[in-house]
Amino acid sequence: MITITPHLVLLLTFLLAHHARGETRTLQPSADTTLHQTTPDTHLGDQLDLAAGSTRLGDKTRALFRFDLKGIVPTNATITTAALEVKVTKQPSNGGSNSIFELRRVLVPWGDATWKVRSQPSEAWSQPGGGIGTDFSPNISASIPISDRGSYSFATTPALVADVQRWLDTPAENSGWVLLSQAEATPETARRFGAREDPVNTAQLTVEYTLTPAVEPFRITNITLHNGFATLTWTGGQPPSQAQRRATVNDGAWANAGESTPNRSVTIPVEGAATFYRVMEPPAAPETAEYEVTFESTWSATSHPQNFPPNAHWSPLIGGTHNSNVTFWEAGGTATRGIEDLAELGNVVALRNEVNAAITAQTAFNVLNRPGSIPSAGAVALTFTINRNFPLITLVTMIAPSPDWFTGVHGLSLLENGQWRTRTEIILDLYDAGTDSGANYVSLDIDTQPREKIRQIVGFPALVNGQILPFAKMTFQRK
To answer: What b-and-e string marks burial along 139-157, b requiring 16 or more CB atoms within 10 Å of the CB?
Structure first.
């Protein structure tokens, strides 16, 4: 027999947080410098200006900025916007060539950097000037066209916000941004920008953030015992919650009692003559998580033998991470230009542009792309970072040859009950994009007018011996 008092003791855990409020801070660089191909061994971090773009002779220049958030932005802040303003102080005397300039997150620490080394005397860049994908992020955080003298603002994007949040949460990863021209092959795209040695014209990073909103205090309101089960009911706190038990009040390991729950009650079996319970709020999922997705084809001449085509393969993988405010494809919907080009031609350009447009609209976080074709019955892997504010993933590939057939996932959430999933496996069926009326793998192009809806293929080539067979699977594994 177990009684509530004194044997049943409840240990309550709850969080009392600050009321939500918005704050704004403007920062100037804590370090900046120019990487100059013309003087590859010279450190230029003490100049009044920085250079980015190509010179009249075609030599490249790139600018580095780093902003120290410590002591300025609270460590428990959630970044909501981030914008970088730069000022062009000089341009070629003839006006030069206008171009788009971009910011990319720097992935490695740097000090007295030159074109050859990121830190004196011998810590070299992966390649002179820094390599994209190794020293600099493969993803663009923001971009704008820059031409004449004056102020230019890289307005807030999800990627800029994620960069600053990463630096706040993990200061050791704060290596700032690189500023470079997208037309480095074009002479006279170079512009001079105010450096921190020029306080009037130096770059300025403006961030807005909120602190954690208030949460109603956690309070147990009822405990009932019935047929060997205890039901705990509470108010307040922040779901999901996890009930735990142990046999003594002051020592011993706590063990989970049942699964975590989004509700404010739980029923668990009573064990032992004296049992001590508590209800915990699991820690919030980290701002970002890193995953590896493996695409494994199960489509082959053995699994789908009817009219199996020569040179069977899959197109490159293409997609992105995003939130629920954007949908790139779904069964019953109409194919976009990006899905049409992917499903008919294996061309990823239009869909990549659609994801980039969503990034600009702050409904997507990054582009996912694994270039190169994938053999029938082959497997490939892709590593990516996902953000808590953009927890959904869309990733597709064309089956080739085919009229307009493809497979993939859309709007798959890797966040479940407030926590990042450890592993998720998705079995993939084949879909018709509704843009081409060809009936076989190698049918000639027959444009479908008007377009039909995207639909799962339940006949040829999916139907084999009276059974609809899948074509591949995707496995998402948190790293």
So the answer is: bbbbbeebeeeeebebebb
